[in-house]
Every structure is written in structure tokens, then in C-alpha cells.
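Go through this one:
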Amino acid sequence: MFSQTSWRRFLLSTTTILAISLTAPKAHADIPDEKYQPVLNHLLSNVMPSKLDAFHAATGDLVETLDDFCAEPDQGGLEDSQNAFHTAMDIWQEIQPWRMGPLVANGRDQHIEYWPDKHGTAARQFRKLMFDKPAAYTDLAQLAEASAALQGFPALEEVLFDDKHTDQLVAADEDGVYLCAYGSAIAKNLNSLTGELQAEWPAFATAMSDAGPDSMDYPTAKFAATDLYRALHEGLLIISSQKLGRPLGENAKDAKASRAESETSKRSLRNISHNLTGLLAIYDGKWGDVGTEGAGLAALLDNSLLDRSFRLNWQTVQDTVSELPPSITELLDQPDGYQKLLDLAGQIGFLTTLVENDVGGNTQLGGGFNALDGD
């Protein structure tokens, strides 16, 4: 485990090597448009579809597990449902940062996971839901037309992991029966949304891969590939500003784990670990057992030292996260937990700088924009 300062020295060391090796700045010749097309085709047509298949299958398993539990509620069935939730959520957290096309069309990403919820909308709506217990919210078709705050993973997390509700579920009292029916409807809605993703993605991938003068949406392959760079850049910014920044607060006294993502199910840092896996796939081109190493944005780099530096720094951050507990609540309970969280935020910030300066510059896809400001 790196000390609080050693990670910083390690991360900077590989960049220092680059600075020494590349003593004079070089003017980059324009990358031919045809070089971007294989990257687009690989990531969008070869890699992502299998992940969407796995996501849809996982939400299908979630539906079946919840239906079995609701038919015969017991502690074992609850734990099975929680495990099915975690499996589906792991895949979603890897897909989540790819914010493009069908993932964000019609606010689909917010219907899958309404977060961050800065104004406590979901909590207010959930309290009203439990007070009124409207039958409409136990029906898939009607739930799909309801507020996004009551549709996706955070709402199901509240049902399956809040201690008060889990007791009601197992007891199968009036509230528990309603909660189970509502949770089952949420799972079915998630399965429907993931089915839509499966169905819509191929056309989007083809449109991106066929970018060129004849395309109304993507006049060049470079223009299309910029969406991939934006996803990589923005994904890291979201981790820094929202997933870590919100619970960190202004200082240790202001820190609050409840502001973190998925903290009811105690998986806020587990989410970040899976985010990093999905984001690295954009750069690398290999995602678990799918894809080919080096066929992502890395294929556009012609500097092997820069590539090694980037991968070493990324691996250092992933190793750091793997040594932390799965939730920010657990981490902040440690005497040095706040400092560890602050150090992680610093590491993510350094990765963001590498993406902006090294990856963005050498792929000619970075425009110096802030991916969260709408530019």
C-alpha cells in the first residue's frame, strides 16, 4: 500500500520520464480520418453489445429472483435478491460512464439510476409512496411513466437494503407485501430499459462507425470519436466532482457518507472500481474477456512510453481502490479514512490531467473543454 505521499511520487514519476524523453514538443501531423474508424467500430460494435447483453441478462435474473422472493419471503430470498441487485449494478456501473447514444436518449440513464439527487427528491417521493401505496406503482406500464426518481436502481436499493424495509419484506406485513410488488415492478422496468438499450445500440453504433460526408450526424470519424474521448474525460470528472466530491465536502468535519452514490447498499467505492473498469475499456479496447487490448483510443497513440505511463498510473489508482472497503461509510469510520478518500480524489484528478493532456492531445480528440459544462 502506498503512503499518503508515495502515490503522488509514483504517479508523477512516469510523467517525469516522459518529460525527459520528449525534450522538445513536437507538432502532431493530422491523424487521417480513416484511423478513427477502426476504433469506433471496435468499441461500439464489437465491445459494447456484449456488455449490454450481460446487463439485460442480469436485470432478467433480478426479476426472477425478486419474483421468487415475493412468492415466499424469507431471509435467504432477501439475500439472493440483494446479490442479484449487486450483480446488475456492477455491470451498470461499468456501462454508466459511456454516456452517449441510447444510454442517454430520452433521459434513459436517469431512469436507470436517478443520481445525484441533490434536492432529496427520491426520498420525499418514496415517503409519499409508502404513505399512499398507490397500486399504479406495482404495475410495470404505469411505473414506466412515473417519476424517474421512483423507477431505477436507487429506488430498488431503498426497498432491498434499508433496514426498516428489509424487516417488512421478510415479515411480509402490509408494507412488506407492497414493497415487494413495487420492487418487482422496478426490476421489470429495468429489464425493459435494458432491452431497449440492446435494441437501439446497433443502429447507433453503425451510424457512428459510418461517420463521413454522407452522415447527417457525424460528418467525420474524428467528430464521432470525440464522443468516446468525452465519455472517458467526463467519467473521471464525475467521479471527482460527484462520487467523491459530494461526500468529501469542504473538509473532514463536513464529510458525509450519505451524500455518496449507492451508500444505502454500502457500495459507493465499489461503484467507482467498476466505473474505472468501463472507462479503461474506452482507452484500451479490452473489457474483461471482450475486445482486444490496444484497439481503443490507445490505437491512436504512436508513443509507447506515453501508453505505458498511462496504463501504470491507471493501474495504481485501481489498486488503491481495491484496497479500500466497498463503501465510504466504512472508510470514514477508519482513523485515516478521510485522508485516504482525499488521496483517492487526488489520484483521480491526476488521471484526468493525463487524459486531458496526453490522451486528448495525442489522439487530437481533446479540445480543452470541460466535459461537464456543456461546451
About this structure: The radius of gyration is 22 Å.
